[in-house]
Each structure stands twice: as C-alpha cells, then as structure tokens.
Design goal:
homodimer, about 450 residues, alpha/beta, Arc Repressor Mutant, subunit A, Aspartate Aminotransferase, domain 1, Aspartate Aminotransferase, domain 2, 3 domains, eight-stranded mixed beta sheet, 16 strands
Chain lengths: ~450, ~450
C-alpha cells in the first residue's frame, strides 16, 4: 500500500510541508487516493519522501484539520470520502476581447459620451488627495444615504438651479442612475407594472424587467408622456424625462406637468419618477424648473446624475425621495452602506463647494453649444434633412425622407460612422420614418465637421 | 381685471424678468390667477409694475414657452389650465439626526467595524492623486465588469492566496458585496427560493426578500450548512460562508465542501454562492483554500470584499462568475457601467500591485491576532464563560449559562456596551442558549481591556 503511495515532486518556493499537503489533498480530491485508503505512517513517509518528521507532521495535521483525512485510533490516518463531482461540462470561459476594446468606428455619435477635454484634472487630483488626507474618519462606515455634507450641498444646488424643494434628509446618493432606479424598484414591490416613455430610455425598460416588473410603453407626443394612455395603463408608477425627453428631445410644458401631477395625486400609492438627466444643457431658452418643485402631494421622486455633467467615470447620482418613500428607505436599507466611496463623496462635495462644478458646467456648456450649432448647421446643408430636438441636451434627431432608417444607418456605417436608428428606442409605437439619433458630445469640433462631410457623401 | 393683477415685490439678486416670471407662474400654479384669466397687456404691465418693456417681454415669452399662458390672437395672453393638485397630505420630512450620529455606546462590539489606525493614509493619498493625474482616459466609460488591469490583479491575488481558479474575464467588480449579491439575483430570475445559512448573515436574507425571492433557512451544524436539509429544501441556489461561517465561526471541512459541490452538480441550474468574507484573518491554522477552487462543474460563484480587509469606506467587492453566469451577465448588463469609479479602481490596482495591500494585511493581521487573544483571555477569566469561533475572523461567540441571552445583552447595555444576541441571526433554528456575538476589530486594545472589565462587573 504505502509503496504505491503517490509521492510529490518537490520544487518551487512554498514550504515542503505545504507542497506535501497540497499533493495529498489533490490526490484525495481527484480519487487517486480512494476513500478509506490508509496513509503511510509518519515515519515511513519521512523515509519515502526524504523529508523531516516535522514536515510530515505539519502536512498530516493540516489534512486532518481540514477534513481530508480521518485519524483512526491505532491505525493512523485514512482518506475521507470526498471525491469531487466530475466536470459535468468543460465549460470554457467565453472569450472576450481584452478591455479596452479597439474602437470599431471612426466616428461614434453615441448619446452617452461626453467631452472630457475640459475636465480640470489638476484640481480634481488636488481635491482627491486632500479629501483622503484631511478626513481619516471617512474610512469608517458612512450613512446609507450618503454623507450629510454632500447631501446638504446637493440639496442647495438643486434648489438653486432646478427649483427642487427638498431637505438634505431626503437626498440619497448612489453609484449611478441605474443603481438608484434599482434601489427604488426594491422599495416599491407593490408596483407590478411600470409605465415608461415610448420611445424611451432603454436602461429603464431593462431595469423594470430585471426586477420582475412589467414595462408598459406609453406613447410620447409633442409634450411628453400621454396622460390618458397613462391613466388607461393601470400602472401606479411612471418614469418620465420632462426636461429633455429621451430620445425625442421634447420639453414637457407646464400644462402636461400639471396633468401628470394630477394623475399621481388622484390614486393611492402612485408615484412619478422624474429623471432630470441632461437638464444642465439647454441652448435656446432657460431651463424649466423640475417637476418635483411643483409637487405638493409628495408623489415625485427626482433623479439626477453627474455622469454627463462631469464624466461617465464619476459614478455618482442622487435621488430625492418624498417623505413616504424616505420612510421606506430607512426601514429597508438602514443597515446597508452607500455604494459610493466616502472619499469620492468628499471629493465631489469639495468640487461643488469650491465653485469648480459651476465653472466646469459653464465651460462645457459653451463647448457643447458650439458643437451643437456646428453639427446641426453642417448637417442641415444636406438636401432634404430636417433636424428636431436640438434645443437642449447632447443629442438630436435627424430625418431624411429619401432613405429608410436602415439605409440611413447602413450608409453611415459604410463610412465608419455609428448612429442609432430611432426604432431602437421604440416599443409599441411605430418610429417616425427615416429618422436617426445623433449624439455629438464625445466628438471634437474637427471630428464633427468630418462626420458631417462623410454623411453628405453617404446620403448623396 | 388688470387692476386686480397680483404684482410682485421685487428684491434679491435675480434679474427682474425672472422675478416677474416666477411670480406670475406661481400665481397660475396656486390658482391666484384662474385658468382663462387675461394677463395685462405688456404696456400696461410695464406701467403697473414699474419695469421696462424688455423685462415684461422676456417674462411673457418664458411663460408662453413653458406653457403657463397661451397666446390668443388679438387678445394677448390668457392663463392656461394647470392648477396643481392640492397637497393631499402635509407629509413632513421624517426627522432624522444629522449624520454623523452621536455614538450611543461607550464600547460598540460591532461585527462589521475594522481598525483603521493602520491604514496607510499618505500612500493612499499619493496613489489616488497619481491615479487621476496619470490616467485622463479613465474619465470615459469603462468596462461594465470593471477595468481589465484591476481584474487581472484580482485574479492573480485570488489564485495565490485563496486557491481560486479564474481568468480575469470572469471577474466582476462592484460597489460592495450586497450590491454584487443584488446583481447576481437579477441574473438568476428562475431561482424563486434561496437557501441561506441559519444562523446566517442578515443582509443575505434582506437581499433575497428585496428581490422577491423566498429565503429558506437551512440549519448550520459544526461543519457548516446541512447538506440533507439543503437537498430537501428544493432550493436551487445556496449562499454559504465556508471559510468562516457567519456568525458561528465554523470552518467548513473538505468533506462538507465536497458534499455541497455534489449537491450543486447533481441538479440542473444549481449554484452555490461562496461568500469568502474574513478569509484574510485566521489565527490558529492556515486558511483552507476557497470552495471555488475545488469546483470542476462551474457551479460556484465566489465573492469577496475589501471593506473588511482595507476599510468599510472602500466600496469595492468582486465576484468570480462561472462561465454560464458570465454569459448571462454579458447578455444582461453589457450596456451598464461598473458601479465603482474608475479612478478608485485604478487606485486599488496600484495599492495591490505595489505590495501595499499585502503589507497592510500583515500589519492588521498581527493587530487583530493580538486583540483577539487579549479580549478572549480577559473575558475567559469571567467564571462560567466559554468562547467559541475565535480561531479566525473579527468576531466570536461567548456563552455564559447563568444568564439568559436577554440578560447578557441588557446587563452589557447598562454598562454602555453594545453586543448582539445570537438570536438576532437565527430564523427557524433555536439559538444556542445564553450566547452573544462580540466583534473586536473596531475597539483599541485599551478599549477591549476596559470592555472586558466592565463585562466582568455586568455579569458578576
């Protein structure tokens, strides 16, 4: 028995007892040493393997401590029964390109890119260093809604710029808007259906489905979500983008806002989610204050994010909960932790409090306004083109009736330009014919001019 | 009509047109100006309010643009119908103490606190600054699973220290273990029940319930989760803590690990979640390699976190997905963003790659080993006390049969010491009688000695 014992080949850096232990454990796991097999006596193994008694003793006691072998009185150690399940499936790791993926497009008119050339790197680097250095207490667990100083700063910012009415107690900081939407759905288990704009934001449809809810598409007209269709849907929760409807670019006028607030106030447990993305960027008129500021009945959840106004890498978003949902949040998540690092919260607070955010918004606002004007003007020279939704935000719609939507995107793709067909965002409503969605923020002014030139050729 | 027009009282910093616009919009919202009311002519309002024509024109055009008033041919502007819903409920914001809450306990034996005195602040501050400065590209959107360099570093670390077998492709970085558990449940909608250790980690029970799943408590014996009870439960998903069962402190021996792997491999679609929290800290023997490393069938999801090994403020956790779930992740979350800031990912990568993490673990490991010995020895002097589960991790159990669990915690509380009763973690099983759970990491050695002194008095 002991003569046929599988001996290890020693080598490498780890201690001999560890190599011996691993070797025997592996043999037991693989079945090379069958359950019930007696191990050689310690003395015999010393001789067989050419190692010291203490090496063997340490290896055996590890094997016993971890349950690989059982100590039997007067007969030493025997192997335990722990054959592992055979591999049921070779199950190779699916291959994926290493990140970052090589860009597949010369010009990507993505709706989610931003221009980071204006980002104040040296200020941010200084701020993050100070935030760590001056706040050792931030290593400990923070408040589940985010730290108070950042929440106070956000409440003030939103009151001033967006007409949001809230106390810092109502602010919840989270790692991105999609993350907050996920938390919100967990707080609202009774809402089995979610009314969503059609066309609308794909991530909101995905979030509803991932949480086992039924997404109900509600048509968007020239003023935003259709109130009558919403009422008929039977949903108790509606997600809207009043400042800048995604992707149509419609701004919801006060009358429609009032209608939606009436809808929310007229049934028990109804809530509106106001996603105020892109509200920082408006080119032709002043921004309309947030729907939340008009709400007197506590039925609106306001959401916003810094991923567009600063950068996608800054994973900080916020929501303002009405009192009823704030109570639920406290009951549900009071033992959790805020998903944003406290150092990053403190860095952002300093960025806001030192006026750097305001300056950054003014710089990028001017940049985007120029880009929007340049791109729409150049594209407007293509015969037959009409452009809508370019009054605000970082994307617009382009319609060119002499081609189908597929032809528009395919001809652009042949020039290595990536556009999104409007139908991508449509669910039950038929898309406007011959229409594509173009984002411009991620391309430089030179690239926008080149993109427009190529599209002139593509759509000639 | 125009004579009864409510005029604003001008003041403050904002432009006059803005004050006029807000005043009229507010009057329309509140009903002070009823729907259909004609606004004064521009000229007349100039005279009434004592402002310039351009001020009135700007205010009126804003009101019209935002839908507060309608332009009627030959009769000027009339108020739109947009009375807001009356406040249905005063709904005050629930009061909450400002963060940080004042500590209510002189000595908090929390199981989640850590000792941050050993944290290398100056290195971390330097690293975060470098991470921002040297990587402008990190402002753009990153990979939904986290950036490749950090994932490669993690895969190597886990292979070396925990015997985890994985490729960087399988690593998913997320903002905390609870967050990753939430993502995982979203990937497994077919798992309607989740088998959980009893006693067990409260956040896992909470996560299952928040995602609409039924948590099924499975008793834990001296080796970990009971395999037969798991089989009988009918669950297809089980959450276990093999390295250091929470809260009993049991380490699962190889035989039980093998049984659970057999359970997972013997039914279609079964998965084990291995939460390897606390595996970095082991006092009396070397750590057993992770269950994941024994899995040949691709049925184990491995999870770990830096919130205990570095600090709760570092909201970075990771999971290793088996190939089947990796494919689902890619299909489901490929358009999402990783919830951890890319700057923070890069800071952590540097912390690992520069050997600072290893050094930090060695320092804190020695510190915690000393604390554990000091605290258990001092408490062991109390007559009748027995201590279990102190071989590893940052907490242990204490049993003192002459008091009930309630008496133990109440008498400690009277000395301003916070302990958790074991029953807090128990669901269907009866708790061990007269047993409490004590964490020691967050208290200094001096505080631990004082806590033990006070408990001697409390339990005399």
């Amino acid at each position: 028995m002991a003569d046929s014992f599988p001996l290890p080949v020693f080598g490498g850096d780890s201690p001999l007892y560890d190599q011996l232990y691993r070797h025997i454990a592996g043999a037991i796991q693989s079945g090379a040493l069958a359950p019930g097999t007696k191990l050689p006596s310690k003395r015999r193994l010393c001789a067989l393997a050419g190692v010291s008694m203490s090496t063997v003793e340490t290896a055996y006691s590890l094997l016993a401590a971890e349950g690989y072998v059982l100590a039997k009185p007067r007969s030493g150690y025997v192997c335990a029964h722990l054959l592992l399940p055979a591999p049921s499936d070779p199950a190779p790791v699916p291959e994926a390109p290493q990140s970052p993926e090589p860009p597949r497009w010369a010009y990507d008119c993505s709706t989610s890119a931003v221009d980071v050339s204006a980002f104040p790197f040296s200020s941010w680097a200084r701020i993050t260093k100070e935030a760590v250095y001056e706040n050792p207490g931030l290593l400990q667990r923070g408040h589940p809604q985010g730290d108070w100083p950042l929440r106070a700063e956000l409440a003030q910012l939103l009151a001033q710029y967006r007409g949001v009415r809230c106390a810092p107690e109502q602010v919840v900081v989270g790692a991105g808007a999609d993350y907050l939407l996920s938390l919100l759905l967990q707080l609202l288990p009774e809402q089995r259906t979610v009314a969503l704009e059609d066309p609308g934001y794909p991530a909101a449809y995905a979030a509803a489905a991932l949480h086992g809810r039924e997404p109900v598409p509600i048509p968007v007209d020239g003023q935003g979500m259709d109130r009558d269709a919403l009422e008929r849907s039977g949903a108790g929760l509606a997600y809207v983008t009043p400042s800048h409807q995604f992707p149509l670019g419609v701004t919801m006028p006060a009358g429609r806002r009032s209608q939606l607030l009436h809808w929310a106030a007229s049934g028990p447990g109804r809530f509106l989610i106001e996603d105020d993305y892109d509200s920082e960027f408006r080119w032709t008129s002043r921004p309309i204050p947030a729907l939340q500021g008009m709400d007197r009945a506590g039925r609106v959840v306001y959401m916003g994010t810094f991923s567009r106004s600063i950068a996608p890498a800054i994973r900080v978003a916020y929501m303002i909960l009405p009192p009823e949902l704030l109570e639920r949040f406290r009951a549900t998540f009071s033992h959790g932790a805020c998903a944003v690092s406290r150092f990053e919260q403190e860095s952002l607070r300093r960025f806001l409090a030192q006026g750097l955010y305001g300056r950054h918004l003014r710089r990028t606002g001017n940049l985007y306004r120029r880009k929007c004007a340049l791109f729409t003007q150049a594209l407007g020279e293509i015969p037959g083109v009409s452009i809508t939704g370019a009054e605000a935000g970082l994307h617009f719609l382009l319609t060119l009736p002499r081609f189908s939507e597929e032809e528009l995107t395919a001809r652009a793709a042949a020039q290595s330009i990536r556009l999104h067909p409007l139908s991508r965002y449509c669910h039950a409503v038929p898309p406007l014919p011959s229409t594509v969605v173009l984002g411009f923020a991620g391309l430089s002014e030179g690239e926008l001019a080149q993109t427009a030139e190529r599209l002139k050729t593509a759509w000639a």
